[in-house]
Structures are given as C-alpha cells and as structure tokens.
Design brief:
The chain is of the alpha+beta class. It is built from three helices and twelve strands, in the order αβααβββββββββββ. It is 20% helix and 38% strand.
Length: 200
Amino acid sequence: MKRLAFTFILACCALGLAAQDVVRVSYQGAKPTITDFAWAYLFYDDGDEEDECDQEATAWVKNALYNYRNGLPQSEDVTVTVDEKNGYILCQFINEDHSVKVEMCFWNEADKKHKLFAYSSWLFIHGKPGQGQYDDLTFYRYNNATKTMHHTRDVGFDVEYDANTYTLPRKGKDIIVTYWNEDGTTRQKTLRWNGRRFVE
C-alpha cells in the first residue's frame, strides 16, 4: 500500500508546484528566514482551489515543514534538516528503492534589495536520478521592499534535466551540477554565485 501511494505521488510530481507568478512572504522579526520562504512557496494560495494532483505532489513536503514548525515528529520515511543560520532546508522521502530529495535555500543579492530563493526536487531510483519528469529547479526573486517574490529564469544558466541533478548549497554560495553518465560514472561542474546570478 505504501508503495502504491508513493507511486501516485510520483505520478503527480510533474504537475505539482507549477510556477506561481507572485508569492507574498509573511514573517516576524527584521527579515524573513528560509522557513518563511519555504512556507510562503509551499502554502501559496492564488485563490484557485488546488487540484488533487497538486495536493498529492506537495503533501509530504508540506507535512514535513508543518511538523518542523510545530515541534512534531516526522514520519519514519521522512527526514528534515533546517539550517536557519545558513538559509537551507533539506527534506528527504525514502521508500524502498525510491527516494525524493527536496532542497530549498536563498541568497542575499549584492544590491541588498533582493534575495534569490530556490526550490529543488529530484527523484532517485536505486541511487540514480529518475531523469526528467519528476525533477524541478525553480527560482524566485524576493523584493525586500514589497515582501513579495516573483518567479524568475534570470539566474545565469538554463536548467538541463537530462541525467543531471543540481545540489543547492548549505554552506557557501555555489550550486553543484552532477552529470550522470550511462556507465555509472559522474562528473561535476560548479555554478558560482556572483551576487545576482550564477556563472560557470
């Protein structure tokens, strides 16, 4: 039964978390934290009723974040790491030979007026990428003055989903791209943060 539920979630992942145009970020204190950005992104409501597939695709991540914020235990197949100091969240769902790795983080931009938020999700089967339809790397630019973030592709590179995975930084500022070859070997490339976007 667990395997069937997991398969259904994966089948919906391609449709879940479609890019939203504008997301309002609510927070307490002087500035938003990674948890505030994640909460705003995952629980965004544009007034339209979210369909069942969208709900299934995001349910486990939403539940994990809800449990974290309320001091509740996680289910046995979910692990959550929240690093507020470094602006990073890792959620992992592991079920038999499948796993889903979701990372979220943000960067302070050099102009001190904006931040860049990223949401990354990758499916792995037997430790290798599921390739394509279950993968996602999405960016939002946050405006400090308006407290809103807007979907953006202006990040300095195009996301390639063919047997590639992207690792967001918990420490440091750069993104690591891993290329998975058919023979089982991998190679990596670093996308370096320059204060506004990434350069190779």
